[in-house]
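To: structure subgroup
Subject: Chain for Friday's discussion

All,

I'm putting the inputs and outputs inline so they're searchable in the archive.
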Amino acid sequence: MRNAETLKESISDVRGILCWGAHVGIKAKRRDLALIYSEVPCAISAVFTRNLVVAEPVKISREHARGGRAQAVVINAGNANACTGEQGRHAAEAMVTTMAEVLGIPRELVLVASTGVIGQRFPTDKVVAGIRRNIGKLSEMRTASSFVANAILTTDTFPKEAAKRFEVDGKSVLLAGVAKGSGMIHPDMGTMLAFMCCDVAIDRKLLDQTFREAVDASFNMITVDGDTSTNDMALVMCNGLAGNRLITGPDQEGYAEFRDALFGVCTDLAKTIVSDGEGATKFVEYRVINAPSVEAARRIVRVVSDSSLVKTALYGRDPNWGRVLAAAGRAGVEFDPDTVELSIGSEKMYQVARRSRPTSQDLEVVREAMTDTQLRLVLNLNCGDAEATGWGSDLSEDYVQFNSHYTT
């Protein structure tokens, strides 16, 4: 079958994947430690933040990921372990060492991730003790995945999971993932935290190429507030336990199905992150069509979707289309303003600008349409045949209030 099917399955249903999520005391009440383990080593691809200020777990995981293989991931929430110096480095190392010891696997097959407040001393003893106490609870029970999804949350209001099942060589294959993110969302190469597991057998280099393409089209096309975190990480692990013939090239049977599933899961997770944006009242899809190149279209999407003036206009249900065109014009992409068309709406679209001038559209009708919680903006450049889609949220008073008191 060509297209992957979206199902209510989880990483717990992926062959050979065991996981757990627990409360170890970093947070007052909520789960704050997640463990993911494959019974056999996996081919992996991982991308990380390009922020120059990076958390200690990112430094370790970047090094371990260079080998292209991993078998376990340990994640904590409530403390980012960023800007923590030597104490933080030892803490991240201790998480890796403990996980490797209790599982009996090499240290280099363990990746580590953290999320939470930056610059606070890391509670190493609590986390290490929590790993040892919970490793025996690793499970393939359906609830185990939901425990993981909840254990990696910070300001999120709900857990984020996605899965797609497809077929390769007559073998049923499952790709599933969890993610977290609500604020500090404007990824660059990686994103917030996202972990995906699959039982397909695929060449590591091909996996890496495909995953990076999927991340660029999904996680790197979302924004909430324009801030790239110190801890961003996205990971996919493929353990090959589905039993299919190793996929080694893009023309091989099964590759298209895997690619569709990977792009689909990444996109589903990315969109749920935006829909949970801090203080957001609207989920907005941005499309740039008939652009000179995909790269140009993506650049405009990212600039427009990150514009504070555009986001506040959307929050206020103001069809201020001039702000959209002005943002597009500073994206560093060459286009002729006299060919541009802009439409805004939800189910029904309304053209508000043509040739960078107002249309006869009644803006009161557009304002009414903008009361919808899910909006679409389509910018037609009329100067090529490439396009790109991205997703963002509006900017409300609640976002400002929440983030003005985040650590206090």
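Points worth raising on Friday:
The chain has a mean pLDDT of 93.
Residues 255-275 form the longest helix (21 residues).

D.
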